[in-house]
Every structure is written in C-alpha cells, then in structure tokens.
Write a structure and sequence with these properties.
CATH class of the largest domain: Alpha Beta
Number of helices: 10
Strand content: 15-25%
Structural class: alpha/beta
Number of domains: 2
Distance between the termini: 22 Å
Number of strands: 10
Shape: globular
Order of helices and strands: EEEHHEHEHEEEHHHHEHEH
Bound molecules: 5'-O-[(R)-(carboxyoxy)(hydroxy)phosphoryl]adenosine, zinc ion
Radius of gyration: 20 Å
Strand order of the largest sheet: 3-2-1-4-5
CATH superfamily of the largest domain: ATPase, nucleotide binding domain
C-alpha cells in the first residue's frame, strides 16, 4: 500500500510517500522559515503564495524519489486542519485535484494526529494504547491514543501553547524566528538557576496547563530591565525558561501516567525536539520504568511523512473524504474529529 502525504498547514510545503504505513520511501520539505525570519514570524499570505509556487514540484520530487508515479498510489492524504487557513487550502485543493485526476481516494488527516504518527515511522514496536504529550507551536496537550485513529484529550493548555511561549520569549530576548530552537541553543550556555519564573496553576483540571503567565513574566522582566538599565543574561533567561517549561510538561505527563496507568509514553510535535524537555522526560520515565518514545529531530517539526503515515492508518480505518473536503483553521476539536 502506497500513500502520498501532503502538508501545507504553516510554513513548510511537504510531500512524502510511505509504504505499508511505516516504510518511508521519500520525504521532501520546502521550508519558508528563512523568508519569514525577517518579519519575526510567519506571514500568512506569504506562506500561502509560497505553497502555491512549490507544491507541484515538491510532490513531483516525492514521487520521483520514491521511484513511483501517481498511478501507483493507493491514496492521497492531506492535512486539512488545524493551521493557517490560506496555507491549508492550498494543500487541500491540490490534493483534491490530484486525487480526482488520478482516480485515487482522498484521505483527510488532522495535523496533530500526524505529529503523533511520526513515532510509528521509527519505532515499529510502538502500538496503541499509550499516552502522548503533544507539544507544537499551536497545541500543548496530553492525549490518550486508544487506537491508530482514536484519540482522547486528557488535558490541554488553557491559553498559549508551549511553542508559542518559547517563540514569543525568544523574540523579546532578541533571538530570530523560529525562536524555540534558538532558546534551546542559547540555554546550553546559560544557568537555569538565574531567574525564578512562575509556574501557573490551573483551577479545575490538574492535567490542563497554562503558559501565558510564564510568557508574560519573561516579557515583563525583559522590559523592566530595559527601563531600569539592567542587563538580562539572555542565555540564562533561555535556560531558566526551558527548565520551567520542561518541568511543567514532565510533571503533567507523570501525573497523567499515574492517573491512567499507562506505562508507554510518547512525545510529538515541534517542541518535542527541545533538548531540555527530552532529557527531563527521559529522567522521569527512567525513574518510573516507563517506556518513552520520541521522534528523531528530523520528524519532530512539520513534515509530510507523518501525514502519509497517519493517512495510511486513516485509509485502513475507512476514513476518506469526497470532493467537498474543506480546510479548517481551528474549531475542529480533536474529540469531535472522526479520526481523532
Ligand atoms: O509542530 P511544529 O513544527 O508546528 C506546529 O504544528 O505548530 O512546532 C513548531 C514549534 C515552534 O513553536 C518552534 O519554536 C518549536 O516548535 N520548536 C522548538 C524547538 N524546535 C522547534 N521549541 C523548543 N526547542 C526546540 N528545539
Ligand atoms: Zn506541526
């Protein structure tokens, strides 16, 4: 079974071919990150335009690298939510046109389920059910993966995602977009004990979290220092922030594992590339004897291999779409999704 995956939810135009769910045949990513860097973040219209320009050549290369043509495919999977609407629409309409022209099934994939599936490409022994900490630029949640296409959200952020917190703090500290990876790099040379940062508590669910207060605290400390002529030690602020975020996420995951009884834990999403978070999750899992699965750094960020992989499982579960498939920026809560 050969499935083509197409991803265009943010600033990466990507296409990939996966065989029998997990065998990676090709993966092509055209990143626009450098172009958005001069604006300090993703400019949605620019992202859509670049997707328009690149999507055909990226898809052709993915097919050529896999040594196949569109005729050989069993289905075409595409990210249809969540993300920048103009960016998603490019991928969805391209996939629709291609599926129609080639007479192949069209398979809708929720981007977050794709991030989770990235683990299957490299960890053949990982099988549902398990607990997954999803940490991306727009989402932070603890998800119970009950089957390849069935998911239950146990906890989520009440405000900002962890990635958003990293990105905004990086910006105020003077690091270029994308900020998360810059915080990670800077933290290597900083002292995590220098700045005391708040750990917001969330009333109601103890598996929910909140990062806006932490983000605001860092921004306020930087602004206050600028007003009083003090110097902020940026690498130490980065290290303090990284340690605080890693501890919050690790504690929430530990609590979720204790409450649910899961001993298999996975991580997914761009922020799962963070070295401090990876180390802290490893320590916690080792201490309890839990099995921990993380995607390699190359599969943490946005890519189409994860979409092709999850698309394969969706296809096997009968989750396909017709020509009326639309894209949705958000509002399609995971629990409401057919495949989530
Ligand atoms: O999953 P992703 O590539 O895109 C979304 O679906 O949102 O995640 C992007 C997020 C950004 O906030 C980026 O700064 C963050 O992942 N990120 C990191 C690291 N690498 C990427 N955050 C912390 N440390 C990293 N090494
Ligand atoms: Zn993503």
């Amino acid at each position: 079974m050969l499935i083509l995956g197409i991803e265009s939810s943010c600033d990466e135009t990507a296409a990939s071919v996966v065989k029998d769910c997990t065998e990676l045949k090709s993966s092509v990513i055209a990143s626009q990150a450098m172009e958005h860097q001069k604006y300090g973040g993703v400019v949605p219209e620019l992202a859509s335009r670049r997707h328009c320009e690149n999507i055909l050549s990226v898809t052709e290369k993915a097919l050529a690298d896999a040594n196949i043509t569109a005729d050989d495919l069993d289905g075409i999977a595409v990210t249809y939510t969540p993300g920048l609407i103009g960016a998603l629409l490019v991928g969805v309409n391209f996939a629709k046109g291609m599926a129609f022209a080639a007479g192949k099934p069209l398979i809708p994939v929720h981007h977050i389920t794709g991030h989770i599936a990235a683990n299957y490409l490299v960890h053949p022994e990982l099988r549902p059910p398990y607990l997954c900490l999803v940490v991306s630029g727009g989402h932070t949640m603890l998800v119970e993966v009950t089957d390849y296409t069935k998911f239950r959200i146990l906890g989520t952020t009440r405000d900002d995602a962890a990635g958003e917190c990293f990105d905004k703090c990086a910006r105020v500290l003077g690091y270029p977009y994308p900020g998360g990876v810059q915080i990670d790099k800077a933290a290597q040379t900083g002292d995590a004990g220098t700045y005391q940062l708040p750990r917001p508590r969330v009333a109601g669910s103890d598996l929910d979290c909140s990062f806006s207060g932490l983000k605001t605290a860092v921004i306020n400390m930087v602004h206050h220092a600028a007003q009083t002529g003090e110097t902020i030690d940026a690498p130490s602020m980065a290290a303090s922030l990284q340690r605080t975020v890693a501890e919050i996420l690790t504690e929430k995951t530990e609590l979720a594992a204790r409450k649910t009884g899961y001993t298999t834990i996975a991580m997914a999403g761009g922020v799962s590339a963070n070295s401090g978070l990876r180390a802290s999750m490893q320590r916690m899992c080792q201490a309890h004897g839990y099995r921990l699965y993380m995607p390699p750094l190359s599969l943490c960020g946005d890519n189409a291999a994860m979409i092709a992989c999850q698309g394969s499982y969706n296809f096997l579960a009968g989750i396909t779409a017709d020509e009326s498939l639309n894209a949705y920026a958000s509002g399609t809560a995971i629990g409401e999704m057919k495949e989530m």
